[in-house]
Write a structure and sequence with these properties.
Helix content is 28%, strand content 35%. By secondary structure, it is of the alpha+beta class.
Length: 149
């Protein structure tokens, strides 16, 4: 049904990842300044989502090197933190995301937020999700028939 990310794919074999959250002013050029710093330091952005308010925004990213990303951005004056997120590769078909979310709802799991990326080799969507207990969610998905390495 759904597969864990394989070792040669999107996340280097990990289903549980470190996400970097960056708190930044909501002003012209800010996002490009951040992406420029990452480019200059050879850090690849694998998935991201931005949420804004009038003055500040939160940029959430899964990157190729979370520790280095934190170091670079903090040195540039950005407030950042890491958190654990879960990545689930699903089929590219109608209802695939709904199936994952229904499994979690039926298990009484609240999903705080999600964003999508894709597996560069297969083209399949990858749902990145944040929950209060990513270990429990991983176990639930595995017990519901999601195949894992």
């Amino acid at each position: 049904m759904y597969e864990r990310i394989r070792k040669n794919n999107w996340f280097g074999g990990n289903i549980m990842l470190k996400q970097v959250s960056i708190y930044a002013e909501n002003k012209k050029g800010c996002l490009q300044t951040i992406t420029g710093l990452l480019r200059e330091n050879d850090i690849n952005i694998l998935g991201s989502v931005t949420n804004d308010s009038a003055e500040y925004g939160i940029i959430r990213m899964v990157v190729s090197d979370a520790a280095k990303c934190m170091e670079v951005l903090q040195a540039a004056g950005y407030m950042c933190k890491t958190s654990s997120v879960l990545a689930v590769e699903c089929k590219d078909e109608v209802g695939a995301l709904d199936n994952i979310l229904k499994t979690l709802k039926d298990s009484h799991i609240n999903v705080n937020y999600t964003y999508l990326s894709f597996n560069r080799e297969t083209g399949n969507p990858i749902m990145v999700m944040h929950t209060e207990d990513v270990n429990a969610v991983e176990n639930i998905l595995m017990n519901k028939g999601y195949q894992c390495d």
